[in-house]
């Protein structure tokens, strides 16, 4: 589902957009018909009408057979698509994985991405980053982060570290603070953070 594309003032320098893939588990109050129809879907084609109706074609693969169904519902303030469509971006719901919508978003910068993620979380949705890519200019290769290999426990540790200010300069939290909050040892916290950092570094240097 393509929505509005980010506009740039005439004469301004071109800026390469961020391309992001998120997995968004809608809040229960969203009553997302796409997710309830197919907790796992190979593809989703959607469109939003001006009246707030959401129309979707959902494709599920079962034993090599493709099954397609049509879903129509009214969007609510807790809907993922309704929330994202309020922002100056381009996005598509490309599939469903384990009850989460796989959402591809093109945004102008990280600040806008942060706003979108915060808005989704305010609806009660759970948001997980799966991929982020950025091409700085025509001479430089695309920088890409693939977060698919980060485990739930590693993600929990790094999200807490960011929230408490572990990565701030100067630091507002220590490994001890993180360990106490997570109920694990300092060495376990350190291992989880190191694993995430190594995954992100490898994403940069191998793409």
Automatic annotation (TrEMBL):
Residues 150-201 form the HTH bat-type domain. Keywords: Transcription, Transcription regulation. InterPro entries: DmsR-like_N (IPR056433), HTH_bacterioopsin (IPR007050). It comes from the Archaea. Pfam families: DmsR_N, HTH_10. Residues 43-133 form the DmsR-like N-terminal domain. This is Bacterio-opsin activator. The keyword Transcription regulation applies.
């Amino acid at each position: 589902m393509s929505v509005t594309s980010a506009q740039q003032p005439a004469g301004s320098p071109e800026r390469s957009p961020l391309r992001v893939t998120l997995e968004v588990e809608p809040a229960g109050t969203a009553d997302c018909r796409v997710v309830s129809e197919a907790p796992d879907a190979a593809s989703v084609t959607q469109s939003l009408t001006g009246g707030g109706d959401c129309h979707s074609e959902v494709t599920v693969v079962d034993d090599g057979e493709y099954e397609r169904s049509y879903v129509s519902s009214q969007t609510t303030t807790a809907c993922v698509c309704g929330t994202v469509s309020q922002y100056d971006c381009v996005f598509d719901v490309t599939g469903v994985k384990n009850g989460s919508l796989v959402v591809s978003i093109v945004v102008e910068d990280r600040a806008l991405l942060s706003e979108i993620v915060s808005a989704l979380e305010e609806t009660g949705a759970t948001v997980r980053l799966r991929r982020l890519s950025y091409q700085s200019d025509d001479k430089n290769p695309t920088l890409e982060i693939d977060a698919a290999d980060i485990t739930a426990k590693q993600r929990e540790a790094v999200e807490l570290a960011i929230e408490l200010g572990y990565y701030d300069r100067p630091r507002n939290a220590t490994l001890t603070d993180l360990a106490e909050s997570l109920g694990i040892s300092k060495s376990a916290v350190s291992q989880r953070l190191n694993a995430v950092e190594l995954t992100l570094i490898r994403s940069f240097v191998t793409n």
